[in-house]
Amino acid sequence: MMATGSADTDQARPVLVTGGAGFIGANFVLDWFGAEPSPVVTLDKLTYAGNLNNLVGLQGNPRHTFVRGDICDADLVRALIARVKPRAILNFAAESHVDRSIHGPEDFITTNIAGTFRLLEAAREYWLDLPAPEREHFRFLHVSTDEVYGSLTPTCAPFSETNRYMPNSPYSASKAASDHLVRAWHHTYGLPTLITNCSNNYGPYQFPEKLIPLVIDRALNGQPLPIYGDGQQVRDWLYVGDHCSAIRRVLAAGAVGETYNIGGNNEKANLEVVKTICAILDGLRPRADGRPYAEQITFVKDRPGHDRRYAIDADKIRRDLNWTPSETFETGIAKTVDWYLNNSDWIANVTSGAYRDWVQKQYA
Ligand code: NAD
Ligand code: DAU
Hints:
Layout: H1 7-12, E1 15-18, H2 23-35, E2 40-44, E3 64-68, H3 74-84, E4 88-91, H4 98-103, H5 106-128, H6 132-137, E5 139-145, H7 170-189, E6 193-198, E7 201-202, H8 211-220, E8 225-228, E9 234-236, E10 238-239, H9 240-253, E11 259-262, E12 267-269, H10 270-284, E13 297-300, H11 315-321, H12 329-342, H13 344-350, H14 354-363
The chain binds nicotinamide-adenine-dinucleotide and 2'deoxy-thymidine-5'-diphospho-alpha-D-glucose.
């Protein structure tokens, strides 16, 4: 329990958000200011997936500071934490795309494993030196994924926090390793950690290498909509705003050392997701020739080691922290398509240069 009297001072101290210029991190930082009093310091390396345009709405906000830097850089991280004196560190920074991890796993090992290790060590050093009340309130929240649990058959129960870790891709193996490090830093050193494992996010500012923004962008450009394999792989779709509110809830009330699964209760096969997007676009932005966007759907070679089904049992966070998602897939996907239609400049900005090289390599 937070000691009365120190709560106000505590809330005035900043939180440090790593990876806050990426998709979920940026949504989190933007949402934070509508919900919480603490200032935010965002640390981001600005890889191809990080984009300062995502945070443009915070320009001139005295409660937000952006720092460009790498979580693998131990000296930088240590000095930044000493200067900022955060009440919490939230680690979103990661290499996040499964297909890229198959083409080139090294960056995933470096950032997701070594980077998390460096951050944990810097956090531990800082936390140990804090005065007692601040040390008690400090939290290290690590954002992770349901992919660490492996793949479900159609009849398996959804992933709960006690499922075995069985990662199948270089990406999910690197995230699993980072979760294990966080767990060990709590059990061995007592660092007050929290881990969240969530399902597939979608919403504004998602880099168009991921299925939903990729399909919206390609549909509007008259390009084929690539469906891997038979398109019957299932994901449990979570609107990014719901993910952000769940993380705030875990930070505020989660039990130290615990893991919380976060899901949207929205299991859908990929083909159904793509057809839904096509139908929304048919209504909002009909093709010039009047034909349905679904005609652009093309079945392509499957992803190696493609996980068949993910689904989250989000009972623990509902029961213990009273959190449930607000969006259904129908409301979330309508908002999302609308956002991409109204933010064509954002898409145009991120789909140049390096993005074109990636698409050429992946879909040629
Ligand atoms: P993203 O790829 O859109 O953004 C990642 C951000 O991290 C970028 O801004 C990038 O510049 C930054 N970054 C990368 N390497 C860095 C480094 N070494 N130092 C500092 N910054 C670095 O990813 P996302 O989809 O926003 O995912 C955020 C987190 O959520 C990740 O940890 C991911 O594993 C996890 N996650 C994502 C999803 C999803 O559906 N997108 C689902 C579950 C969990
Ligand atoms: O489950 C959480 C994970 O969700 C996160 O940890 C990852 O960071 C995030 O990238 C996401 O992983 P997926 O591999 O599930 O997401 P992606 O958008 O790449 O693919 C979603 C599904 O769509 C998957 O079954 C593969 C399929 N797909 C994807 C692309 C890019 C296609 O059929 N065609 C495509 O072109």
